[in-house]
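Researcher: Go.
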Amino acid sequence: MDGLNDREIRESLLAVAKEMVGCGLVEGTAGNVSARLPNGDVVLTPSSVGYDVMTLEDLVVTDSAGTVQEGTQAPTTEKSLHLACLRKYSDIGAVMHCHALFASMFAVVRQPIPCVIEEFDVYVGGEVPVADYNLTGSDALAEDVSRWVKDRGAVLMANHGLLCVGKSPKDVLKVAKLVERTAKIIWGARMLGEPVPLPDSTLKQFAPVYKLVGRLQ
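Model: Structure:
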């Protein structure tokens, strides 16, 4: 993961978790972040611990099956969501689930966020689809959501929020910010008229770029 060692990954995840709430992607203790460690285990944010007081010691490490290896806190209740993505795709190094305001608007009306900006195609891999509604924390939610991130960096969870994946915690935060910014642009643009999609030729040209830029470890 970008050449980071175990300690650096944990420090990066904690910093990103704090910035996630600081930049308004979540409120309170909502949302969660995970990252793959060099030995294959996964470090996750804990359940119900405020980001302002969260420390490295609060982070929880599990194996790929979800069995706790380190930590005294309970892992996020959405651990299945994170582990499913990391198990399925070796090129994913980090996962973030958040409740970004504008992205959540699209999730509530179950509309995908269209790809109308070139950088969105490059760093997200195309439009952000909407996964079916399933109960929070359920294996069914994890299974359905994880299948959507095979070839893109984000997916909406119906009536819930946003999930993003990336190479590292810092990378996945950038993806989440870009998705939220684009959702806001689309929301505003629709007040002026109907957003015009990118030409098919542009989408075809950028099609292979996401795997190289957005997911290559």
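Model: The mean pLDDT is 94.
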